[in-house]
From TrEMBL:
Belongs to the class I-like SAM-binding methyltransferase superfamily. RsmB/NOP family. GO terms for molecular function: RNA binding; RNA methyltransferase activity. S-adenosyl-L-methionine binds at residues 112-118, 135, 162, 180. Residues 1-295 form the SAM-dependent MTase RsmB/NOP-type domain. Keywords: Methyltransferase, RNA-binding, S-adenosyl-L-methionine, Transferase. One of its GO terms (biological process) is RNA methylation. This is Fmu (Sun) domain-containing protein. The keyword Methyltransferase applies. The keyword Cell cycle does not apply. It holds the Pfam family Methyltr_RsmB-F. The active site is at 233 (nucleophile).
Length: 321
């Protein structure tokens, strides 16, 4: 077991009023324990699942199974066949905000899509007519395309563009925009991974600024009456609640909305409806999520020329990365 840094201890005091909660949080990051894997069924769920299944959680969709113990579904042949996608339950938690959106949905834009988990969760939860998946980091685009292709989402379009381009070319055009934002990645420690400098104020401030820039573009892309789902895999309020509060101040047509299935996970750090999963819960490495509704009525026709010119078909019919 390592020793907690002073910056981690300082963060714990910001997050929790009770000493026992602070201690549990720090312990989860300094002495990480394995978390069970979740699988998202992309094909019809088998009547007999070849894994030991843990009891379902209230916010867990019927098409997600939470596995018990140390199982490796990524090594099973069903995974390569695209029957399911493997991910952390923290990702399922973050995407649970989508349950508050009526279905079916016309269009979903995932602005920070690689490796594809949130796009797949949105496709299952919202059954959109159009799924647009963007990844700004070029080298991650191939992984995104590979996962979408393996899981059968061959009608999706993949982009490698700065989020601002969507604000300019697809204004008020997407029914749902997802921003699984780049962040300091503090929850990686709960998985036993490294996240160098994740508690340093300079790194946190840099990430918060980047998140605000992405969200500003995202907000301009949401159609009137549409939704913006914001999520991170970090714990700092500067990158979570404070970013949501900033967004609403800058774009007052947006309001944070309650997500009934996550009521027990409401963040105590904001008066707005925001939700947190803590690593000491034992359910996943942790994360933050919030859903914002655009109360404006402005809509624009979809720029089909832009989609045709910039979108990459999964099978590379038009363009390949």
């Amino acid at each position: 077991m390592g020793e907690p840094s002073n910056l981690l201890l300082k963060l714990s005091r910001r997050l929790f009023a009770e000493a026992r909660d602070r201690d549990a949080f720090v312990e989860a990051l300094v002495n990480p324990q394995p978390f069970p894997t979740a699988i998202v069924w992309m094909q019809p769920r088998l009547e007999v699942v070849p894994f030991a299944i843990a009891p379902a959680l209230p916010w867990q969709p019927a098409w997600v199974d939470r596995l018990s113990g140390d199982q490796r579904p990524g090594q099973h042949g069903l995974h390569q066949d695209g029957a399911y996608y493997c991910l952390d339950m923290a990702s399922v938690f973050s995407a649970a905000v989508l349950s508050a959106i009526a279905t079916p949905t016309e269009s979903v834009l995932d602005l920070c899509a690689a490796p594809g988990g949130k796009s797949l969760l949105a496709w299952k939860a919202l059954t959109p007519d159009h799924l647009w998946c963007n990844e700004v980091v070029r080298k991650r685009v191939r992984v995104l395309i590979a996962n979408l292709k393996r899981c059968g989402l061959t009608d999706s379009l993949v982009f490698n563009l700065d989020p601002q381009t969507f604000a300019e070319q697809l204004p008020h055009a997407a029914s749902v925009v997802i921003v699984d934002a780049p962040c300091s990645g503090q929850s990686l420690l709960a998985k036993g991974d490294q996240a160098l400098g994740c508690f340093h104020p300079v790194n946190i401030k840099k990430n918060a600024s980047r998140q605000k820039r992405i969200l500003a573009s995202a907000a301009q892309t949401v159609t009137g009456g549409g939704y913006l789902a914001y999520m991170t895999c970090t714990f700092s309020p500067d990158e979570n609640e404070q970013v949501v509060e900033w967004l609403i101040k800058k774009f007052p047509q947006f309001e944070a909305v309650e997500v009934p299935v996550l009521a027990d996970y409401a963040s105590p750090l904001s008066a707005l409806p925001c939700y947190r999963l803590w690593p000491q819960s034992g359910l996943g490495a942790g994360g933050f999520t919030a859903l914002l509704h655009n109360r404006a009525t402005s809509t624009e026709p979809i720029n089909l020329d832009f989609l045709a010119a910039q979108g990459m078909q999964i099978y590379g019919v038009e363009r390949s990365p």
